[in-house]
Amino acid sequence: SAITKLPYLNAVCHETLRIYPPTILGAYRIAQKPVEIMGYQFEPGTFILPCIYLTHRQEDLYPEPNHFRPERFLERQFSAYEFVAFGGGSRRCIGYALSLFEMKLILARILTNVKLALPDNCVAKPVRSTFTVAPSPIYLIPA
Q1: How many angstroms separate the CA atoms of 55 and 62, rounded?
Q2: Distance (Å, rounded) from C-alpha 139 to C-alpha 120?
Q3: What does the pLDDT look like over 96-125, one tens digit per residue?
Q4: Which domain holds residue 35?
Q5: CA atoms of 41 and 2, how far apart (whole Å)
Q6: How far apart are the C-alpha atoms of 30 and 45, rounded to whole Å?
Q7: Is residue 143, in this structure, part of any structural domain at all?
Q8: CA distance 136 to 134
Q9: Does residue 98 lie in a domain region?
């Protein structure tokens, strides 16, 4: 499909998922033995819960993390543990590829059929809604 050959569309989708991940927190794990993570010691039985939202805002991984900059995904290939919108490594969400394909398909369809514009002085701010984050306010107004 032609949609898979659009690198900037792919970058826009990844950057959107970086800023607004499907969930704020990853799946928890329970330490089975003493473990050290980033200089912190965890004893067996400790619940370890990764924060996707904070990982995607690490300045060393994503310079200017609060800016929407899809080009960062064209300039660099992030590892499965740096871009974790759907989890990382072998435990990544089974629906990752389908979700990303649907996202690209819908966005391409919208951009093909609708002219989008931002209202004057509109500032979208992230709002937490249960386990997800979404921009607010958001309006679809026919152009």
Answers
A1: 9
A2: 13
A3: 999 999 999 999 999 888 888 777 777 766
A4: 2-114
A5: 48
A6: 6
A7: no
A8: 6
A9: yes
Is 121 among the domain residues?
Answer: no
Helix axes 7-19, 96-113, angle to 10 degrees: 110
pLDDT at position 46, please?
Answer: 94
27 assigned to some structural domain: yes
Is residue 143 pLDDT above 50, yes or no?
no
The structural domain count of the chain equals 1
The length of the chain is 143
Q: For the full predicted model, state whether its pTM sits above 0.85.
A: no
